[in-house]
Amino acid sequence: MTSTTGSAGPGDETAPGDDAVAKPRFDHARAEAAIRELLCAAGEDPDREGLQETPARVARAYQELFAGLYTDPDEVLNRTFGESHEELVLVRDIPVYSQCEHHLLPFHGMAHVGYIPNEHGRVTGLSKIARLVDLYAKRPQVQERLTSQIADALARKLDPRGVIVVVDAEHLCMGMRGVRKAGSTTTTSAVRGIFRSSSSSRSEALSLIRDGR
Ligand SMILES: Nc1nc2c(ncn2[C@@H]2O[C@H](COP(=O)(O)OP(=O)(O)OP(=O)(O)O)[C@@H](O)[C@H]2O)c(=O)[nH]1
Ligand SMILES: [Zn+2]
Description:
Elements: H1 28-41, H2 54-65, H3 73-76, E1 80-82, E2 89-100, E3 106-116, E4 122-124, H4 126-137, E5 140-141, H5 143-158, E6 162-171, H6 172-175, E7 186-193, H7 194-197, H8 199-211
Helix pairs in contact: 1-2, 4-5
Zinc ion binds near residues 102, 103, 105, 171 and 173.
């Protein structure tokens, strides 16, 4: 099994029993110590009653929020099946919760993912598309990279005629701090194949994404 993240990344250790390829995993003890240290740095007392279990809780939360670092995207898309459908398949309004890699604050919104299968009609289960979005969202991210990683994984595994991905999201680092523009949203798109070369295919998909018709 190959790792998705190469050699760099948090918890960069070999999982027990996997001596063939170094597979990164979340280092819970290290994360817990770091959260305790952060509380100290903020002038808090990590031993006061309300905070005693916080480092362990936050470490568990981050293990979940960064779970996408430890899953191979190719595994998610390994199960495909033949279905003679050579028109658009579009999954709209997939909820996205990610963390901006600059501030480790959430950005959240919706992803819309469409593709046109190739002439062999290889399609994937609809849930696998939502799993793919989750996998790339659950890691320190920027919205542009999230969008293109989803498109590239689908292009690589399904060899479709085209892929279109649109993500609309609000970044809390722009709302609750810094420039404080709560409610502003960012839209990113990535198009591959026919959606790049044909403006009419792209417009049709975009209007389905926006209006459902
Ligand atoms: N392009 C892009 N920028 C992002 C994303 N998430 C956060 N940012 C931006 O990353 C930038 C980081 O800017 P810096 O100047 O290094 O950090 P900063 O001083 O905290 O910036 P401010 O947020 O402006 O206070 C900010 O402009 C954020 O709005 C993202 O997904 N894509
Ligand atoms: Zn940010």
